[in-house]
Amino acid sequence: EAQVTQNPRYLITVTGKKLTVTCSQNMNHEYMSWYRQDPGLGLRQIYYSMNVEVTDKGDVPEGYKVSRKEKRNFPLILESPSPNQTSLYFCASSLSWGSGSFYTQYFGPGTRLTVL
Amino acid sequence: GESVGLHLPTLSVQEGDNSIINCAYSNSASDYFIWYKQESGKGPQFIIDIRSNMDKRQGQRVTVLLNKTVKHLSLQIAATQPGDSAVYFCAETPPLGGYNKLIFGAGTRLAVHP
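ok -> structure tokens follow
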């Protein structure tokens, strides 16, 4: 089954304790992206990756890191989480994106993060 | 389920009626627009898209209209069903970053009553 998976689905942590949220897709998609969703603000893009070893900032990258060492995986890293990073996080992937070429973005089920 | 928006504008419709959800987008140079549906506890799901060189596109029971003059996007759902109850987001791809980004609106909650 074609899908985007995220782990963990729920996480409660404390300020300053490094964490990683994993994202994996099995569709051989080139483009992957992370979003956070907060009440009343819709989804905001954190980072995206056009392909392996190619990543770039979205609209709200502060406090986050990403890496794209393999095509299928795009982990989101919070080196020193703070309470304002409490949010619902979504990973998405697409066959391709940008420069006139847009394919459907498929979203994962979400990760609910609480930073105390 | 997950709460995606505590204070979203809400559109309430009767089952079988047509629904129209509106969205004002921000960048007049955006090239690609999408409507997503998000049910409680799930990630956004693609509904329909439209390129900037079009003003209307139809899918199954859904139609998207694009008015570039006033930077307005609308989603029309025909014969609305209870399963259509969800939060709907419009999204645009602005030229910033070579059209590689995706910017979402705040969302509208659609409530379908029997």
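Residues 37 and 43 of chain A are 4 Å apart (CA to CA).
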